[in-house]
Amino acid sequence: MSNPRPAAKKNTWLMPLLLAVIAAGGSAAGMYYFMVKRGMSDFGMTPAAAQPIQAAQPIFVPISPFTVNLQSERRQPHLLYIGLSLQVSDKQTQEFLLQHMPQIRSRLLMLMAGQKAEELITPNGKDVLSAQILGLFQTPLATPQPPLGVIDVLYTDFIVQ
After folding, report:
1. Collapsing DSSP states into helix, strand and coil, what is residue 157?
2. End-to-end CA distance of the chain
3. Is residue 22 part of a domain?
4. Containing domain of residue 118, as a range?
5. 74 with 16, same domain?
6. What is the pLDDT of residues 1-15, one digit of tens each?
7. Which of 16, 34, 94, 128 is the most buried (most CB within 10 A)?
């Protein structure tokens, strides 16, 4: 018959080994959580500088509303009352556009006079007009002209009558 004593010796070293493996796994999981999930630095274990992300302040160039006669397929007189703001990327572009506002308004009036009322009342017509307005800034307003950062055209007033 075998001795029960050797079986008890086998189990005595198994329990500390199992506890050590569990402790190592828990320690690794804890380090992963704090370093990756919580944003801790690699070595110092100090929280990473959590600075709030602030969006850049948008810069707009307002263009006073104006009224223009529109073309019509039915030979009826139509008017467009439109107010705009141009979103620009930098202060240099903003200052340049403000200095050349009479030229910009003149170009806009000429562009608007060639529009058809039936097209402008649709959302797609407004999108096409926005693209045409952005295209106006491809032709230089002055020589030499710095690169202009006109990002978007925003309608503040838009009435077709």
Report:
1. strand
2. 110
3. yes
4. 59-160
5. no
6. 555 555 555 667 677
7. 94
pLDDT for the residue 39? 58
Within this chain, do residues 96 and 121 fall inside the same structural domain, yes or no?
A: yes
What is the rounded average pLDDT of the residues 127-141?
A: 94
pLDDT-derived band at 95, boundaries 50, 70, 90: very high
Which tokens is 69 given? 């006669």
* Rounded distance between C-alpha atoms, residue 82 and residue 80, angstroms: 6
- What percent of the chain is predicted at pLDDT more than 70? 82
Residue 145, classed as helix, strand or coil, is coil
**Region for 149 from its dihedrals, namely left if φ exceeds 0, alpha if ψ lies in -120 to 50, beta otherwise:** beta
Instruction: Report the distance separating Cα 71 and Cα 81, nearest Å.
Output: 14
Number of domains in the chain: 2
